[in-house]
Each structure stands twice: as C-alpha cells, then as structure tokens.
Amino acid sequence: MSKSPYENLRFRIHNLPMEVPLLKEFAELRKHEELKTVIVNNDKLLRYCIYMFDPKSELIKEVSQLKERKAKALNLAGFKKNKDGTFEKDAELILNGMSDDIDEHKQVIDEVQKVTFCMLTKVYNDRKFREWQTLHEELDENIQIRMSKIVDKGDKATVEAIQKKGQLREQAKAIHLEIDALEKEIFGEHEDLKEHALVIRFSSPETYVSAFAGQDTED
C-alpha cells in the first residue's frame, strides 16, 4: 500500500472525514481560544493552516510559489471553487488578501488573520516565537540604557560608561541578527503575519506578552 503524502502531518487530517470537527478531535488545538471562528468555516480554515504551516507538509517541499501553495492548501482543506475557477468568497480573501471593499470583508479578514497567526506562532513555532519576543525585550532594554545621557566628569566612571555603551551597541547588532534569523524560520514568506506580529508588539507590548503567558507547546 502506498503511503499518503500527508501521513507525517502533526495533526493527521488527510484521511479524516471533512465533517469531523477538528477542535473536538485534537485537544492541542482546542486549548487555543483564537482558533474558534464565527464567520469563516472553522474546520476548513484549520485544515488550510495545517497544510500550509506544518513543517512536514508536502506542499512546502513541492510547491515553491506561495500563491500556488495557498491555492492547493485551500483545495485540500475543502474550500469549493466557482464555475469560473475562482474560490468561494472567504477562500478568495485568504488567497488574495484585502479586497477593494475592505469594510464588507473586514470581519472575515480579521478572523482569518487571528487563526492563521495563532497556528503559525502558538501551535507550530511556540518556542521559537517566545524566543523572538524575548530578544525584542532584550533589545528594548539595551537601547534604553544606551539612550541614557552620560554626564562627562572626566573621570574613570565616565570612560567606563562610554565603553559600556560601545559594548551594548555590539550586543545589539548580535541581537538584531538573531531576530532576523528567527523571523525567517518562523514566518518565511508570510510577510503579512510577520507585520501583524510587529504591529501587536509595538502597539501594546504588555498585551502582547500576556497573550503568550502560560503557553508551552512543542515546535
């Protein structure tokens, strides 16, 4: 018997009937409130995320072009196509992003973003994403210290303070490199989700940190 190309997925969905609710089937998914949807079909969207983000998904290996990979993942997830070859409305928004009528589709876009972001960061890259967050915190502290004004008294303490700032500057360069490397590992080609992470991080750091408190899942 030939092996299924998706048998190594973390969540074995490929041979799971479409009518089986994934949040009921998988306890690991069920614990994330962000994965519950109201507007977009919950199971189709979760299936799409699994095919797109699972490191062992054959789609990542076989389909290099992001939009083509999205289309195949949508098809595998059960989203239907219209007679003209386009996907149903929600799937088209996932495939092509924002539409001209942003207000009409805002709720769908927000819901898709919430679920895809949670799947990519909390489910599939939890530890790496926590490290990314920690490095940003370290960089913030580094910059705050370097921004403090040195009062030049012409003594040994002044010289040491200047030298310390130089050392911190070199540390900051190293932190930037680590952040860049982690962003490539976590987000890859998904620039929209990386931008979303940065928006949340810099708009409300306290909320951002608390959102990931108490979570610990395997990468």
Fill in the keyword field for this structure.
about 220 residues; 2 domains; 11 helices; elongated; mainly alpha
Q: What percentage of amino acids are in beta strands?
A: under 5%
Structural class: mainly alpha
The count of helical stretches stands at: 11
Ends distance: 30 Å
Name the poorly predicted regions.
none
Shape label: elongated
Whole-number total of structural domains: 2
Helicity level, as a percent range? 55-70%
Taking the sheet with the most strands, its summary is: none
Please trace the helix and strand order, writing H or E for each element: HHHHHHHHHHH
Rg over CA atoms: 22 Å
Number of strands: 0
Q: What number is the mean pLDDT?
A: 87
Q: What oligomeric state best describes the polypeptide chains here?
A: single chain
Any overview of this molecule?
The chain contains eleven helices and no strands. It has 219 residues and is mainly α. It folds into two domains: 22-123, no CATH class; 126-211. The chain is elongated, with a radius of gyration of 22 Å. It starts with 21 loop residues before the first helix and ends in an 8-residue tail after the last helix.
What's the arrangement of secondary structure elements?
Blueprint: H1 22-25, H2 27-30, H3 42-53, H4 58-62, H5 66-77, H6 89-96, H7 102-123, H8 126-147, H9 156-187, H10 191-203, H11 205-211
Write a compact overview of the structure shown.
With 219 residues, the chain is mainly α. The chain folds into two domains: 22-123, no CATH class; 126-211.
